């Protein structure tokens, strides 16, 4: 099984893309590209193996294995992936958040920020497609 994440431009608000799996697709939210810095950057373009893990915080989700210089990279629900050093809100530390669409949402500072919307249903669709089985994730830009 194979999924493909095609990223679009990375901004201080985050990196957004399209995740295709089977005959389905959803959008994604990630941190901006910051040279693969832990908890500050999305992960590098590449091909990764994903398998079910039990996260203490997010429960049963997919983990992304063998990310250079990283550990505990997950695919979980979230809305914001902004650069906190630039004053934006994030709910990610290098993980990938599926979402149904990208739009504007009020962040914790009360300002409008680009965000992934309707994340939980998108994650549920991915989880149903993979059905607990490992899959290969190819990330391109």
Q: What can you see in these coordinates?
A:
With 141 residues, this protein is mainly beta. The protein has one domain (2-140). Helix content is 9%, strand content 46%. The chain contains 1 helix and 10 strands. Strands 6-5-4-10-1-2-3-7 form an 8-stranded mixed β-sheet, covered by helices on one side. It has a two-stranded antiparallel ribbon with strand order 8-9. It is globular, with a radius of gyration of 14 Å.
Describe the largest sheet.
Answer: 8 strands, mixed
The total beta strand count reads: 10
Order of helices and strands: EEEEEEEEEHE
Shape: globular
Number of helices: 1
How big a fraction of the residues is strand? over 45%
Distance between the terminal alpha carbons, to the nearest Å?
21 Å
Structural category is mainly beta
Contiguous low-pLDDT stretches (5 residues minimum) are none
Overall radius of gyration: 14 Å
Arithmetic mean of pLDDT: 97
Strand sequence of the main sheet, in spatial order?
A: 6-5-4-10-1-2-3-7
User: Helix share of residues?
Assistant: under 10%
Number of domains: 1
Concise overview:
With 141 residues, the chain is mainly beta.
SSE inventory with pairings:
Blueprint: E1 2-11, E2 14-21, E3 24-30, E4 46-55, E5 59-64, E6 73-75, E7 97-99, E8 101-106, E9 112-117, H1 119-130, E10 135-140
Parallel strand pairs: 1-10
Antiparallel strand pairs: 1-2, 2-3, 3-7, 4-5, 4-10, 5-6, 8-9
Notable traits:
141 residues, mainly beta, eight-stranded mixed sheet, two-stranded antiparallel ribbon, 1 helix, 46% strand, globular
């Amino acid at each position: 099984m194979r999924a493909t994440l095609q990223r679009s431009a990375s901004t201080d608000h985050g990196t957004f893309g399209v995740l295709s799996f089977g005959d389905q697709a959803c959008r994604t939210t990630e941190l901006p590209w910051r040279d693969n810095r832990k908890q500050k950057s999305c992960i590098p373009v590449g091909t990764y193996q994903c398998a079910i893990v039990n996260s203490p915080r997010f429960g049963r989700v997919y983990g992304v294995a063998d990310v250079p210089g990283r550990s505990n990279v997950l695919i979980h629900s979230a809305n914001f992936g902004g650069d906190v050093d630039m004053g934006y809100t994030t709910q990610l530390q290098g993980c990938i958040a599926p979402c149904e669409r990208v739009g504007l949402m009020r962040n914790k500072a009360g300002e409008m920020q680009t965000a992934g919307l309707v994340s939980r249903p998108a994650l549920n669709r991915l989880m149903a497609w993979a059905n607990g089985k490992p899959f290969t994730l190819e990330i391109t830009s």
